[in-house]
Amino acid sequence: MTRSSFLAASLAAGLFTAGPQLIAAQQTAAQKPADKSTEWLIAAAVLAAPAPLRDGAEVRAWTADGELRLLRAGTNGLICLAGRPDETGFAASCYHASLEPFMGRGRELIREGIEGARRNEIRWREIEDGTIPMPAMAMVYNFRYPVADFDPATTDPATGTRLHALYIPGATTESTGVSALPSDEPWLMLPGTPSAHVMISLPRKQP
């Protein structure tokens, strides 16, 4: 999967601030995430997180009607979301709980049919007026695998696509030393805004 398609998938999940609808991954006849057991979904979802944080992460899964249900309570402040039921591949994302008001509001706006620049404008205004609290810094981890039918017990996350984001509200190139031009190096997305974040793409290892 290309960098752009993985970014689109993360955007559609409500993790980042703007973007197109989900771009489907490689076609497969495997079961969709909604058909998987709770144990499978938990084991797969936490692959997005660094290994030391997986056991303590809260895990949620998407329902067929686009809502989230709790699969496992967490202890370390990290929230992981398993893939959407309509995906042909598998995608999971984990983020620090301090970003939940921002992420939850993004999902709410998508359900209302508000996306793209308008969704940004609404959340930024709500951040600035104090309706949405934002942390000074918080991490988002994303993992995507090209097929839904894989074994989370044996799959090396390094063989999937991983595109992470470090949220630093208001960050600019001048304040961070991070370029705002997309590249293979870390780069700053939406610099100077309340949802500025450093995009970090990790190299994919061949299975």
List the helices and strands and how they pair.
Elements: H1 3-12, H2 38-45, E1 58-62, E2 68-72, E3 78-81, E4 90-96, H3 100-111, H4 116-128, E5 138-145, E6 161-167, H5 173-176, E7 187-189, E8 197-202
Parallel strand pairs: 1-3
Antiparallel strand pairs: 1-2, 3-4, 4-5, 5-6, 6-8, 7-8
Account of the protein in words:
The protein has about 210 residues and is an alpha+beta fold. The chain has 5 helices and 8 strands. The chain has one domain. It has helices spanning about 5-10, 40-45, 100-110, 115-130, 175; strands at about 60, 70, 80, 90-95, 140-145, 160-165, 185-190, 195-200. An 8-stranded mixed β-sheet has the order 2-1-3-4-5-6-8-7, sandwiched between helices. The longest helix has 13 residues, at about 115-130. The protein is globular, with a radius of gyration of 16 Å. Residues about 1-15 and about 15-30 have low confidence and may be disordered.
Count of beta strands: 8
Amino- and carboxy-terminal Cα gap: 14 Å
| Low-pLDDT segments, ≥5 res | 1-14, 16-32
Q: How much of the polypeptide forms β-strand, as a percent range?
A: 15-25%
- What sequence of helices (H) and strands (E) makes up the elements? HHEEEEHHEEHEE
* Main sheet record: 8 strands, mixed
Rg over alpha carbons? 16 Å
List keywords for this structure.
alpha+beta; disordered N terminus; eight-stranded mixed beta sheet; 5 helices; about 210 residues
